[in-house]
Each structure stands twice: as C-alpha cells, then as structure tokens.
Design brief:
The complex is a heterodimer of chains A (about 300) and B (about 450). With about 300 residues, chain A is mainly alpha-helical. Chain A has a two-stranded antiparallel ribbon. In chain A, a hairpin with a 5-residue loop joins strand 1 and strand 2. Chain B is α/β, with parallel strands linked by helices. Chain B folds into two domains: about 190 residues, Periplasmic binding protein-like II (D-Maltodextrin-Binding Protein, domain 2), CATH 3.40.190.10; about 200 residues, D-Maltodextrin-Binding Protein, domain 2. In chain B, strands 1, 2, 3, 4, 7 and 13 form a six-stranded mixed sheet that branches. Chain B has a five-stranded mixed sheet with strand order 10-9-11-8-12. Chain B has a two-stranded antiparallel ribbon with strand order 5-6. Chain B is globular and about 70 Å long. The N and C termini of chain B lie far apart (about 55 Å). Classes of the chains: A mainly alpha (about 300), B alpha/beta (about 450). At the A-B interface, helix 1 and helix 11 of A face helix 1, helix 3, helix 4, helix 12 and helix 19 of B.
C-alpha cells in the first residue's frame, strides 16, 4: 500500500504538471481562436494605423505621405513650441469643459423630468431624444442659419430686445462658446436617452420605502436616484469626454477652425496639417499627443471616478 | 484549426474586397450611367473633378456631348468632393492603377502635383502634334507655364471682382456707373453709403488668403521671393513690405470709419449679407457672378478690384483649376484623354461653359460665339470680368506665385486678417503672419529634402 502510493505519487507529480501545461496551452489557443476575428479586425483597422502614425511622427513627408527625412523628436518639439498648436490644445480643453458638464447636466435634468409618469410623457421623451436622429452636418447647417450675423434668429431676437447683435461665429470671444452650444444641443438626444434608460431601471421599491419614511423629493433625488444612476452616469461621462476630444464635423461646417484659430480643436488641426498642408509628420505627432491625452483622461476617470460608482 | 484560420482569412479578405468594389461602383455613378455594352471597344478615360452644384451640371453636359460626338473614347466624369479632397485622394492613389486618367487640380496645387512626379506633362502631346497653345488666353496660360513647359491644360479659370449694389449707390448720391477704383475711393464711397443708410455697411472682404494675394498682385507686389517661386524654389515671403501691409491698413481705416462689414471666413454669409442689403460692396470670385446677379433683388454692378491710390493697377492673377494627365497609363488611354482635353478648348464648348458658370472662356474665340453675345446683352456685368483679365499687365506679380505650401500660407493670412477684423493690432498681426509663413516655407523645403 505504502509503496503503491509512493511511486504513483511521483509520477502523478510529473503528470500533473504536464497535464496542467497542456491544458493551459489548449486553453490559450482556444481563447486566441475566439479573439482571432477581433484581433484581425483590430490590427488592420486600429493597431497597424496606430503604429504607422507613431512611425510617421518621427519623419517629414512629401505630399503623398511618403517619408522623406527622419527628424526624430523634432516634430514634437516643433508643435509644443508652436503657438498655434498650444492654442489648439487650450481650445480643446475649454471646449471639453464647456460641453461635457453642459450636456450631462441638461440631459440629466430632462431625463429626470421625463421620467415622471404623466399622460403624454412619451411625446416629450421623443422630442428630447430627437437630436439623436439628426446628423452633425444637418444640425450644423441649421445652427449656421441661427448664428448668421444679420439674418440669424438669435441676433434678430437680441436686436428686438434692444441688445446689440453678437458675431456668434466671427467674434473670437464668442465662437468657441457658440460651437459648444450647438454641440451640447447635438449631444443631448443620445445622453438623454441613455440616462432615461438608467433611470427607468431603478427599482421602484426603493422610492416606495423612502416615501414611507417621509423622504422629500430632493432627498430621494440625492440619495437614491444619483447613486443608483452612477454606473450610467459614469459611462455617459466617459463617452462624452472622448467624443468632445474628437469633435470635427461641426468645426468644419461652422468655423473651419477660425476666427483666429479660436475653435481650431485638435482633430481639426490634425486634419488641416495632414490634408490641407500635407504635413503628415506634424499631423501624426499631434495625433499621438491626442491619443495620450485621451488615454490619460480615461485612466484618470477610471481611477478617480469609478470609486464613486455604485454597482448593484 | 488551420482550415478555420484559412476560412477566416478568406472571409475577411472577401469582406475587404466587398468594401472596395462597392466604393468603386458608387464613384462611377454620374456620367457612366449607360456603362456595359456601350463602352465595348472604346477607350475608357476616367476624369476626376471637383465641380459641384451648377458647375457639375454644366460639366456633365459637356462630357455627355463629347461621348456622343465620337465612337472611340468614353469619358467617365467622377465627382470627388472639394479641390482639397480631390487632391488628397489623387496623392494617395497617384502612380497606381487606381489613379484616374485625368484629374482636376486647383491652381495652388500645381507645384504639389508636379513634385509628386505622378503626372505626364501635356507638353509631350503639344510637341508631338504641334498643338497651338497660343490660341488660348495668354493671361491664363502664363500661370500654368512652369519653366517654359506646360504641365497641365487650363480649364476653369476665374479671378476676383468687386460686386456693388447700384441702387444703394444711387441712394447715397454716388454715380452707379463709376464704381470706386482705389482703396481711398472705396473708403469714401463707404462713408457716403453709411451716411445715407446707417443700416448698411460699405465694404466686406472675406478673410480669404486668395483675395489677399490678388490685392497684392494688383499693386504689383510679389508673394514669394525668387520671382514668386518661379525662378527657383522660394525660401521666404516677398510681401513683408509696405505693399503687403497696405491691405491691412486699408481694412483698419474702414473699421475705424465703421464702414467695414466682418463676415469672417464665411463667403456664404457675406453673399447673403450683400443680397439682403447689409453691405454695399464686396470682393468675390467672378465664378459667382451669375449666382449673385440672378439672386439680387436690386441692380448689381461688377467692377475691377481696387488698388492703393499711389500705386498703379497691375491686374489679377488667374485662379481656378487645370486638368492633369496621369503618368504610367497605356498610350491609347493617354491619347484618348488628350483628345478630350483638346475638345474642351473648342470655342463653342468654352462659350457654353462660360455662360453656364461664370468661369472664363480659356479660348478667347468663344467670346465671338452667339451664346456669349446673347448672355452679355442680358447681363453686361459678365463682360467686366473678362475685361479685367484682358486689361492685366503680364508680369511676375500677375503671373502668380508657385509653391506647394500656398494652402498653408492662405490659412495663416486668414488668421491675420481675422485678427485685424476683430480689432487686433495691424503691425503685430502682420509680422506674426510673415513669421509663420516663413516657418511654413522652411518646413516645406526641409520636407522635400532640399
């Protein structure tokens, strides 16, 4: 008995390791197999372009984007000493600061009031989420008419009230704000819909028991609605952040980066460098910077923001 | 396992090729509607252009006529978006089989396309059959002649003109038939208009680098050194002087008078402003002449662009685009394309093009055609645009600058103009612009490895 146990145990030890190794390998291959489609797609559409961008950022290029001169980190040095790029960084951060909180607060407000159970509330829900169905281009044209210096409704309204007309898109002090306002409007629909969905999935028992305890409306809002909504809010904030950093369409339509580069957001600046000035090297360097900014912001949000998120 | 891998690869490449082919079909849509059997035995020529709106209608009509006029060549015209988009696309496929036979490139893209090395200079075909380019308008061919050689065939050309509201001029007691010619006269007219109608501004200048270049050339100023980049590659700007600054100073004076209307970089807003009577004069491409005249509820005047009193009028640089032929295409295809290019220069085709769009007729013989005469009777203003071009004194200044970084220069100038429009300091805005353009020239020269 003793012998019988001893010997096999030795073998078992070896066998066990082998089997484990083999199992591990099979599991790894299986896993890889499942991942293969996305790895393939990602490498063609994401990893390769990313590596290529990084590579290009160390070179100067000719007009077709072929590399000509290796300049090392000069592209990065140049953009960080260029007042135009620094201005564009500043505008981008300001734009994010205007649009993200603006969108979230307004759509949260709309979602909360649209969550009340009233007759005909479906109509308002449809109206509030309707901007989702409008493309950026169409919405920009619509806002361009509103912002027109002399014939736009906004200025006609101001003048009717006895104020002076504002150069919404031509005055450098207003342009970024004007673009932000139109962007907030465009983003409202999507954010509203997600938040409303989040609100509707909150268990009504929570409210009922709070009501029995005599909690006020705002107490419930603060202690039940917002904490229970926090995963949705977190998602919406992250997505809005990334979207805001990548804004392009409305800039191209409304201001083309003007007046005085005041609305020359990062992605638009990249577009101009690459496809108008044919400086693919500089453009790639800017794209790399944008990548790191978004990476950093998202990491920060997960580090700091997620702590406050309450998952059920 | 291996089979699965191969299966995925195949599926994936099929997906990719599906994307490709659907894209290809989409592009062919416009002029190749008949396609199929009809093209059998014909040499096919692909023609990428950037003509949207009214101009596309006119161009498609011309292409259709050409295809019906003979049995050997089938031209497929494909709209590719704006000039910038077309040029970017061409740069990315240039030299491959996907490149079109003919591509339309705007005038400032000239150097960029030559440097790419993917085109066949049309001089080759001109030499082969002794084609007479002197039939064409000299002020236009001057621009496209680089180092004594024709690289591309001029096609749609325009210059800026000054549009003005004749009714407003009458009301202000100005002579509607004698539009202001100099900066100083424009200022005075602006003041008179503002006095008679405080709601109306005098003059609007879109913040657009092209207009700055034209105003500079009109007083004989050069944009770039080394003879506007035509003698040798430019190394720095040549407008860092009184001539360059005079344009900024002029705007500043009108702003002080309160007669300048600021529409920023948006030309649509400016035209709408003019049509609704918010501003009495503005500068814009002659290609919009038809649009503006047709849509204005008042009488529109067209005049030469202004110049400073102390200088002499030199004239304008040609704007617009020309047609380029790809290198590396089969000879038959190139020959077919050349035939189409020659067809486009015929007086009757140019007459149709001129009247339909407001672009110039490249071939001056077109002005003798009946269509054009009829149009001039109806809209005498159209003639002014041609007169301004023909009154231009040939010189390096009016030949126009050549360099691949001109799009960047324009953007920088636009920013500087906007700074002044918003009350910024003229000297500071001007010297910043000069500095930035010089840096851009240096960068572009290093990038080419020179």
């Amino acid at each position: 008995m003793k012998e019988a146990v001893m010997i096999p145990e030795q073998y078992k030890q070896i066998d066990f390791m082998k089997v484990k190794k083999k199992q591990k390998r099979v599991r790894f291959i299986k896993g890889m197999l499942f991942l293969l489609p996305s790895i393939l797609l990602f490498s063609v559409f994401l990893f390769y372009p990313m590596a290529r961008t990084l590579y290009l950022s160390f070179f100067l290029t000719d007009n077709s984007g072929a590399t000509t001169v290796f300049v090392g980190l000069d592209n990065f040095k140049n953009i960080f000493t260029s007042p135009i790029f620094l201005k564009s960084l500043q505008s981008t951060f300001l734009f994010v600061l205007y649009t993200v909180p603006g969108t979230i607060i307004i759509s949260l407000f709309l979602a909360v009031i649209a969550n009340e159970k009233l007759t005909g509330i479906g109509f308002f829900r449809m109206i509030f989420s309707s901007t989702m169905g409008i493309s950026v281009a169409a919405a920009s044209v619509f806002w361009m008419f509103l912002f027109h210096p002399t014939m736009g409704w906004l200025n006609q309204f101001l003048e009717a009230l006895g104020f002076e007309a504002i150069g919404w898109l031509t005055n450098p002090e207003w342009a970024l704000l004007s673009v932000s306002i139109s962007t907030i409007w465009m983003n409202l629909g999507f954010t509203f819909l997600i938040l409303l969905g989040g609100l509707q999935s909150i268990d009504s028992h929570l409210y009922e028991s709070a009501e029995i305890d005599g909690a006020s409306y705002f107490y419930k809002l603060r202690r039940i609605t917002v904490p229970m909504l926090s995963p949705t809010l977190f998602f919406v904030i992250t997505v809005s952040f990334i979207n805001a950093f990548q804004t392009f369409g409305q800039i191209d339509m409304l201001t083309r980066g003007g007046p005085q580069n005041e609305t020359n957001l990062l992605v638009y600046s990249i577009y101009q460098e690459a496809f108008k000035n044919y400086q693919y090297g500089t453009a790639s360097a800017q794209a790399v910077i944008l990548f790191f900014i978004i990476l950093l912001m998202t990491l920060l949000q997960f580090k700091l923001g997620e702590r406050k998120v309450h998952y059920q | 396992m291996k089979q699965l891998f191969i299966f995925i690869l195949v599926a994936f490449s099929m997906l990719l090729s599906a994307c490709n082919s659907s894209e290809g079909n989409e592009g062919e849509g416009t002029a190749n509607a008949k396609g199929g059997e009809e093209t059998k035995g014909k040499t096919e020529v692909t023609f990428w252009h950037a003509m949207g709106g009214q101009a596309q209608v006119a161009l498609d009509e011309i292409v259709k006529k050409y295809n019906e006029s003979q049995d050997d060549v089938q031209v497929n015209a494909e709209f590719q978006g704006t000039y910038e988009e077309t040029l970017s696309k061409y740069h990315s496929v240039g030299g491959t089989d996907d490149a079109p036979t003919i591509v339309q490139v705007n005038e400032i893209g000239t150097m960029s396309v030559i440097n790419s090395g993917n085109i066949e200079p049309i001089q080759k075909f001109i030499d082969e059959e002794d084609y007479d380019m002197s039939n064409l308008e000299a002020n236009i061919t001057n621009y496209y002649k680089v180092d004594g050689k024709f690289y591309s065939m001029p096609f749609n050309s325009s210059t800026p003109v000054m549009y003005y509201n004749k009714d407003a001029f009458k009301e202000a007691g100005l002579d509607p038939e004698a539009p202001p010619e100099t900066y100083e006269e424009v200022e005075a007219a602006g003041k008179a208009i503002k006095e008679s109608n405080p709601e109306m501004k005098g003059f609007a200048l879109q913040a657009y680098g092209w207009l700055f270049e034209e105003l500079l050339a009109n007083q004989g100023g050069l944009l770039l050194n080394n003879d506007n980049g035509r003698d040798d590659t430019a190394t720095e700007v040549a407008f860092d002087n009184e001539q360059g600054k005079s344009i900024f100073k002029w705007i500043e004076r009108m702003m002080d008078d309160g007669t300048f209307a600021n529409y920023g970089t948006n030309s649509d807003n400016m035209v709408t402003g003019f049509l609704s009577g918010d501003v009495a004069m503005f500068m814009q491409s002659s290609a919009s002449a038809r649009d503006v005249i047709d849509n204005a509820p008042f009488e529109v005047g067209v005049a030469f662009i202004p110049y400073p009193e102390k200088e002499e009028r030199q004239g304008v640089v040609i704007g617009g685009a020309s047609l380029w032929m790809s290198k590396g295409k089969p000879e038959a295809e190139q020959k077919a394309a050349w035939d189409f290019l020659k067809y486009l220069q015929k007086p009757e085709i140019q007459a149709e093009w001129h009247v339909g769009t407001g672009y110039f007729a490249i071939n001056p013989a077109a002005y003798e055609e009946q269509v054009v005469k009829d149009a001039y009777n109806e809209m005498p203003q159209l003639q002014v645009t041609v007169e301004q071009l023909q009154a231009t004194k040939p010189s390096i200044a009016t030949q126009g600058a050549l360099m691949d970084m001109i799009p960047e220069e324009r953007k920088i100038i636009e920013t500087a103009l906007e700074t002044v429009y918003n009350g910024g300091d003229v000297d500071e805005a001007f010297s910043t612009a000069v500095e930035q353009v010089n840096a851009a020239i240096e960068q572009a020269n290093t990038a080419r490895g020179e």
